[in-house]
Specification:
alpha+beta, 5-stranded mixed beta sheet, 37% helix, extended, Znf_BED, BED-type domain-containing protein, transcription regulation, ZnF_BED_domain_contain
Length: 443
Amino acid sequence: MTKKSTRPTPRSAATGEAQRRSSSFLGDADASNSSATTQAPATGRPSPRLLQPSISTILDPLDSTAGSSSLVTAPTLTSPQHEADEVPVSQAEPMNTNSVVIEEDSEEDEAQEEENKAEEVVVRPRRKLTSPVWKEFKKVKVKNMMKAKCNWCSKKLGGEPRNGTKHLLDHLKICPYRKRPADTKKQTSLRYSSNVQGGKVAVENYTFDQDVARKALGSMILLHDYPLSIVDHIGFRKFVSALQPLFKMVRRNTIRSDILDSCKIEKKRAINYMEKNKSRVAITTDMWTSEHQKRGYMAITAHFVDESWKLQSYIMRFIYVPAPHTARVIAEILHDALVEWYLEDKVSTLTVDNATTNDACIPILENLIGPSKLMLGGKLLHMRFCAHILNLIVKDGLDVLEESIEKIRDSVAFWTSTPKRIENFQEVAKMLKVTKVKNYPLM
């Protein structure tokens, strides 16, 4: 009984070329090296098997001649149950160039493959995860299995949809890293102390805090009247990154919200302090209309002497006043501010300018507060704004000198109209030995 020999099925030239590309993709040797390999003596390693092309087909992206949708045959290994029917390769007919020879992976390759499978791959869910537990867990893929990794202790639990989330909630209750205070998870570094005395340099612990840095940034913008857009300037961002790479720069809307929140906190603290204050408080207020907005605004300030005999001032309100700006409207806004700051029974005086609306506002405010809560029944409540009175006096004095002032202005405008006149004026001043102290701009 003769043994059957494995013979490759004839294929067309295009199919043979596709199979040779497939064998190159699998990392096998070419046909000449394959013949030498099959005739080598056994070294304890299984000999390469001769592959018989099957009738199954796959898309071959490497075949540019047939197009992206061309079909080629996919080689498959001979079934183990037919190993007895095979003859040694040396006794078989010459190998066709369409046949493919592969070798088994070594132990190092298998170890590398297992290591690659063990690597964690963060998986982005296709739909939004509604459970709040996923704020402290993230989905990772380990060895083709979905896991839920704890953000605190990095422990991996079942993350398949069938596992649910109850076991994740139970883990959060006993997670040791989650129970630690927040300060223990921040890295502490060393810095030089700012309080240096006697030429000695002190070193102290320093822990970077994002929230503290954001509050300092908001305080800087308020203190120096910087625009909110400074946080979007490229140069400022580079400067902050060079100082502290850990600081995450915020946008203008975020820093605006931080400033408003800080103002609310400071206002609440000031109101609580004024509630405990026992001394009388003097109120000053002024109102003006914005030129570009054409809207009226009012500022209300409180002045008092504290327990240490130090003068204190607090801006109570900076508020928009809707039109019309009548005496009744102004009196009601002032009374609301006094009630909010617990000062309706602590007012000593109210200083306003000499507008007629303010003169009519004082009696209305007295009735809203009550004469019994004011000093001497309200006789000392209305105080005139002395600086405003002085300003009116100066304006009246300048009206007398208006003709002389206009001549001086016309002379300055004549000599500064052209560069030639300026040079002539300087030459005449030099000839007359007039000492030039400072260049004053044209009024």
